[in-house]
Amino acid sequence: MALFTDGAVANIEALKGHDTQLLNVATVEDIDVTRKLALAHEEISVELVGLLEQAMQSGRLAAPPSIDQIVVTTPLKLWHVFRTLEMVYRDAFNSQLNDRYGGKRDEYRDMAKWAYGNLIQRGLGMVTNPVKQATTPELRQSAGTLADGTYYVAITWTNAVGDEGASSTPAMIEVSDGSFAVETRPTADVAGWNVYCGTSPSRMTIQNGLALAPGQAWIQSDAVSTAGRLAGNGQTATYWLQVPRMIQRG
């Protein structure tokens, strides 16, 4: 699971999965869906901070939890999806005062409350030592005997106990009569990193054995290994934080 603070919890494809008319409505009403995703993420961030503060005030926690410890669980993703769709149709209704848009707005507002309720019932998925999503790696040509072709490379950062964060956005490189090197500039709290490579961005497998040290480069000197694990979405929850129920807006 990615961390909530890694970036957008849901994307336009996830929204389309729940509302096939979304892009048509957005085009007709001149609504920036990407911006709505960001605004919904910002609103939810404020509400999550409030939940963490209430959990701390309960007196059951030894140390204050941080929003960067929250992982994206299914209820949290659905909350983001439905909150975004509610915002889209709220704008559409305010523009045209169309009852159909108003009905969709109300429907998604209720679904957002449902997802929020499920999140509270289960609790917030938390990690003890969060690892940020890695930034896109830097690739450069290098000597080697790799087969000519197009390669996609993603990386993950790890903490001191080997937990991996979410894999980076892949970088692409064309190889002809040689190979390539991979480098990254991790943040100070990163203990190591891993390299994932493949001929498709949807199937990149790990190439290194032990985690590489920060500042160390990886040379893909020969054939890409396809036997290792695939690039993943990050850490899973190490514990569940029960939080008080907050009355939502609307």
Describe this structure in words.
The strands form three sheets. This protein has a four-stranded antiparallel sheet with strand order 4-3-6-7, with no helix packed on it. A three-stranded antiparallel sheet has the order 2-5-8, with no helix packed on it. By secondary structure, the chain is of the alpha+beta class. The protein contains five helices and nine strands. It has two domains: 4-130, no CATH class; 138-220, no CATH class. The protein is flat, with a radius of gyration of 21 Å. The mean pLDDT is 93.
> Tell me, what's the shape?
flat
Spans of 5+ residues with little confidence (pLDDT < 50)? none
| Beginning-to-end CA distance, first to last residue | 30 Å
Order of helices and strands: HHHHHEEEEEEEEE
Query: How much strand?
Result: 15-25%
Major sheet: order of its strands?
Answer: 4-3-6-7
Count of domain modules: 2
Report the average pLDDT across residues.
Answer: 93
- The total count of helices amounts to 5
Number of strands: 9
Structural class: alpha+beta
Largest sheet: 4 strands, antiparallel
Radius of gyration, taken over Cα atoms and rounded to an integer in Å: 21 Å
Give helix % range.
Answer: 25-40%
What's the arrangement of secondary structure elements?
Layout: H1 12-18, H2 22-28, H3 33-57, H4 74-96, H5 99-122, E1 124-126, E2 138-146, E3 149-158, E4 171-175, E5 178-183, E6 192-200, E7 203-206, E8 218-220, E9 239-241
Antiparallel strand pairs: 1-9, 2-5, 3-4, 3-6, 5-8, 6-7
Helix pairs in contact: 3-4, 4-5
